[in-house]
Amino acid sequence: MNKKIRISHIILFVVMMIIAFIMIAPFLWVFSASLRPYSEAIALPPKWLPPSIDKWDLKYFKKLFSDSIPFFTFMKNSLKMSTLITIGMVFHGAIAGYAYAKFNFKGKNLMFGLMMVAMMVPVQVTIVALFKIMNILGIINTSLAVTLPSLTGAMCPGLAGAFGVFMMRQFFMGVPKELNEAAALDGGGPNKAGPIMLPMAKSTLTSLAIIVFTFSWNDYFTTFIMINDTNKLSLPVGILSIRQPFATGDNVEFAAVVLSVIPVLLVFIIGQKWIVKSMTHVGVKG
Q1: CA distances from 58 to 68, 158, 254 (A)
Q2: Is 286:175 a contact under the CB 8 Å cutoff?
């Protein structure tokens, strides 16, 4: 039996390594291409691994640090919008999730069911209505056109706003009701039990923040529709605009992609334990 277990472990390990390589391969290729001349970067078959350090060509990274390409303006815009969206979605998710988990009110199940349906609706379906609303408010071509819908829970780029509510609801449903009763006995009342429970939800809140920040940072579609001023673009749209009007004729775009991945990668590495921990809480009720 031990032999069967070892064989199954080996097979599982091989399968996981293959999947890991498939996921990592694009990043390896982009990193390798950013350090090579353009002719080598687009050569077939692709060169997956970067060249030796003494052959690294860093001129493409130097271009990003020059004044000719507003790369760090794009990065600053993305950081600003992603942070505001993350704060809004975490705040909205925590409050609504707590209400759905701990309060009983008329139409609760129906409202929650309709909200879950919203998880299946992509932003492309609602973007026209959102654009018209933002236009009426007079904030088209500003960062508010991207952040305001998410601050109100109407949209989170690449991720339905309902997900945060669902995630926090599942966590709070697993919290014993005795905590609410204890808060009521201490004079806090059911409406003031939130400050007691929020510290308990630290891992889930952190996980939600990381997930929302990652999706917001990578969002292309919303910014592309709402903003057309080059100096206000987010990083994904800005990288594409490097070709026009900042046409370079080389693979400086690869260098931009490499630098754009670093912030999200660091955030995920630092917070991955919170993601695993929170998913355990969400997946187990009671």
Answers
A1: 16, 33, 11
A2: no
* CA separation for the pair 58, 246 (Å, rounded): 19
How far, in whole angstroms, is CA 150 from its chain's centroid?
13
At 196, the amino acid letter reads: I
24: Cα within 13 Å, side-chain hemisphere: 9
Residue holding tokens 């949209």? 155
Count CA atoms closer than 13 A to 233's CA, side-chain side: 21
- Specify the 3-state DSSP secondary structure of 107: coil
Q: Cα 43 to the chain's mean position, in Å?
A: 32
The candidate with the shortest Cα–Cα distance to 222, out of 161, 151, 156, is 156
- Report which residue type is found at 256: A
Residues 155-199 have pLDDT tens digits of 554 344 678 888 888 888 877 777 766 666 665 555 566 667 777
Rounded CA separation 85/244 (Å)? 28
In this structure, are residues 93 and 167 in contact, taking their beta carbons and an 8 Å threshold? yes
* Amino acid, res. 209: A
Token code pair at residue 51? 């060249």
Q: Which two tokens stand for residue 196?
A: 């007691």
User: Is there a cis peptide before residue 45, judged by omega within 30 degrees of 0?
Assistant: yes
pTM of the predicted structure, to 2 decimals? 0.79
63, 64, 70, 74 alpha-carbon torsion, rounded to 10° = 160
For the beta carbon of residue 151, count every other beta carbon within 10 angstroms.
Answer: 16
